[in-house]
Structure formats: C-alpha cells, structure tokens
Specification:
Length: about 475
Amino acid sequence: MKKIVIIGGGLAGLEVAKKLSGNESFEVILIDKNNYNFFPPLLYQVSTAFIEASNISYPFRRLFQKHKNVNFFMGDFVRLISEQNIVETDAGHVSYDYLILAMGTETNFFGNQNIARNALPMKTIDDAINLLNHILLCLEEASRTQTLLGKEKLVNVVIAGGGPTGVELAGMLGEMRKYIGPKEYKAYDQVLGNVYLVNSGPTLLVPMSRKAQQDAFKVLTGLGIKILLNTLVKDYVNDMVLLSNGESIPAKTLIWASGVMARPVSGLSKESVGPAGRIIVDEINLVKGYDNIFAIGDQCIQFSDNNYPKGHPQLAQVAMQQGRLVGKNLIRKERNKWAKPFTYQNKGSMAIISKHKAVVDLPFGSFKGFIAWLLNCSFQIGDLFPAIFFCSLKRYYQESFNKVDQFIEKELADSLVATLETGKSHHIFDPEINSLRAVQMYCWQIRLAISDTTISEIDRPELCGQLRKFFVSGIATSKAVA
Ligand SMILES: Cc1cc2nc3c(=O)[nH]c(=O)nc-3n(C[C@H](O)[C@H](O)[C@H](O)COP(=O)(O)OP(=O)(O)OC[C@H]3O[C@@H](n4cnc5c(N)ncnc54)[C@H](O)[C@@H]3O)c2cc1C
C-alpha cells in the first residue's frame, strides 16, 4: 500500500483525495491548516453578506467519513525534508511515499508594508468575514459621525485590482450601495460614499474577451462604480489611498485584490521554483528534480501544454483537472501503465458583475446579462462545484428560477399583447409560445426538485442534464424572442 500525502485540501488537492478514496492500494493523508474545504470564487458573496460562509465550505472529515483509506490531518506546513520523505507541520511530522503539494497562493503586497498592514485581502473565509464586519462597522460609525471628511472616509471603498475578484466585489458593493445602504442606513449619503475600482492596466478582466471586458465596464459604471484604469495604488497612509496619478482617496477600506504569489515551500530546491514563486512541474505535474513529489493547481507552473507555453492561468478548472489527472496517474502507475500528460480543457471563463448579471466567455462565444449569470451558476454546479455545495446553493438557484419565471411570464404577456395588436390569431401551438412554456416547465420542475429533495435523494447527473437542456433552450428562446 502506497502512502500518499496531500498538503492543501483546496480545489486541486481535494480532487486527488477524491480520486484515490476507496482504492485499497493507497493510504491517503490530507493535510490542511483548516479543517474545511471552501470554494474561493464565491468569497466575494460572503464578504458582501449575499451568502453565508457555511454555504461555500464543508468539513474534510465529513467529506471522507465513508472512506477508510482517506485520513485528515490538521496542520500548518512548515518544511519539507525530501531526503527522508517527510513533511514537517506545526502539529507533527508525516512521512510519505508520494507527496502532492497543493497549497495554492497567498496575497502579494509587492513589498509595500503600509498596504500589507492596513489593506484587506480576499483569499480566505476569514478574510471575507473580516471584510464584511469591517464594512458594516464603518457604516455604523458613519451614521454617528458628524464631519463630512470623517463620513466620507468611512463610506468610501477602494478596490485595488480589476481582475475577476475586484470586478465581482465592485459589482456586489455597487448593489449594496445602491439598494441596501440607503434603506438600512437612513443617514447614509449616496453622493458621499463611492466605490472605486483601481486597475493598473488599460482594461478590466484581462484574461477575458474584449466584449466581456466592455460589458463588465458598462454594467459597473451603470451601478455607479468609479473605475480608474492605467492607475496604480502606490501607498496607503492615514486612511488615504495614494494613486500613481498623484490623486488620493480618503477611505478606511482598501481591498487588495491585486496580486498573488505561490505559497513558498521551505526545503524545496531553488531550481524548482519559477515565476511568482510557482513550482516548476513537468507534463505529469512531477516537480522538477524530484521523482516522488508532485505540485498541482495555483502553486505550480507547467510549460509543457502546447496551448499554454507560458503556463496555465491560475483558475479553478486548471486546479481541479490537474488534481484529477494526478490521482488517475497514481492509479495507472500502480497498474504499471504509463502516466498521461496534462492538457487543459478550457470550458470558458466567467465573472459575476452584479446580483443577477455576469459575463461569460465560452469556447463558442460570449454572453452577458442574466442568461450569463444563470450559465455561471450552471457551470459552478455542474462542473466546478463538488456535490456538497449543492444543498447550500438551493437558495441561490431558487432565486434565479423565480427570476426566469417572471421573465417568461412577461415575455408571454408581451407576445400575447403583440399578437392581439397585430390582429393575428393567437394559436396554442405557436412555436414561440411553446418554447417559452417549455422553458417555464423546466424551470418549475427543477425548482421543485431543488426545494423538495434532500441532497442524498438528488440525482445529480440527471438534474445537471436537465439544467443544461434548460439553459440551451432558454438561450435559443431568448434569441428567438429578441
Ligand atoms: C477571491 C477569489 C476569487 C476567485 N474567482 C475565481 C473564478 O471566478 N474562477 C476561477 O476559475 N478561479 C477563481 N479563483 C481562483 C481559484 O480559486 C483557484 O485557481 C483555485 O482555488 C486553486 O486551487 P488550489 O487547490 O491550487 O488552491 P486553493 O483552492 O487555494 O487551496 C489551497 C489549500 O491549501 C491550504 N493551505 C494553504 N497553506 C497551507 C499550509 N501552510 N499548510 C496547510 N495547508 C495550507 C488552504 O487552506 C487551502 O485549503 C478565485 C480565487 C480567489 C481567491
């Protein structure tokens, strides 16, 4: 029996453990500094109180309670002693036959101590809850503060970084500012409180298509977000955010969504560390210079994929696909089969830019608006999300289905009015009306399935199939109607 030690039970590490669970050829020890797995892409919703932290996290022990060959070890990685096949954690030493490094990244403040001390990062559940509490306390204090400058500092929010995290946060904060702030904080002054999104480059959402970038810009400016492009946050002193264009913004809240670097692994040879601290791996994710240590996900960089000669983007799908393949390859190795090289299957990228709007780039085109937002939910449930998050997202989905329902009812009513106005007879077999009704029926069925079923009863593949069908017919219908 081979002993596999995985350090980091994030999106990548968890996939390896899942792949090897129940396989008696392996004893798996999953080490993590937290006792739960969580889903980073939805952290921004926790930090803006749209969902609870428990909706995006799940305990490791419960995840693997049925699999005797997977054990959890809570500990913070300290160093690697590769000559002895041992890892040291703050809770003790663990030996291994194969080691898998999957500790992801940490926030990069680019050496600025003022920013590191006073800005708020967005990497962990603790960061998200901390940010939420910070914003709420600032709003409370603002409602008691009399001076204009004092108030302004408390209600202004500056986000550094116009990537997906910065854009998604800005969208949600824009919604809060527009709809929740004035209702719940009666003295809240919308003119005074601004959300600034500061980006060093000329466009938001750099990895996405030009169209998605423009759509995101439009939606955010529509929500009142002040976007500053080609601008750097240089420093943060006495609650003043100092910008590269010479201006400064008074703000007690600076959110740092600007850069990450791979978590360092003490004890690993210097030759195996590449750009931004990422560990250099070969085509099967073996760390350069080692034959029993793998690195996967955000923590590694791989130059062997022909489509990504400069390395893959640090995304959830890359991490999960690498984790799955390393798990499979370990099994293949046990069966004396050759290991398969990694090639990234890009299923598209998405960013949610407000409560019900998103931009989605798919291999066959891009979407925006509400349909894109629904697609995003579908991808996260169907492909990105482990089944455990399904129940937690019930509410999220129910809300979206209610909205689809309303949309369809309105379309049906409009179409009826149009047929009456044009004097054409309204036929029950009208294909347009029928496709709308079909979408509505799917919507009802799925909503019922979600609200009336417990997780163990949900037939996930069938439901996901239904969802896909529903979205495809939804898109076709909205195109037909438009
Ligand atoms: C706010 C935010 C939003 C994002 N949005 C998107 C998105 O919309 N789409 C997308 O594709 N990607 C998104 N990403 C990126 C995506 O989350 C990562 O690519 C993915 O999580 C990488 O998986 P990983 O397993 O390599 O690392 P992680 O998922 O970060 O997991 C690392 C694990 O290692 C553990 N760990 C860390 N240090 C130690 C230590 N010293 N000892 C023990 N354990 C340790 C952590 O607790 C964690 O469980 C987002 C990331 C963030 C932070």
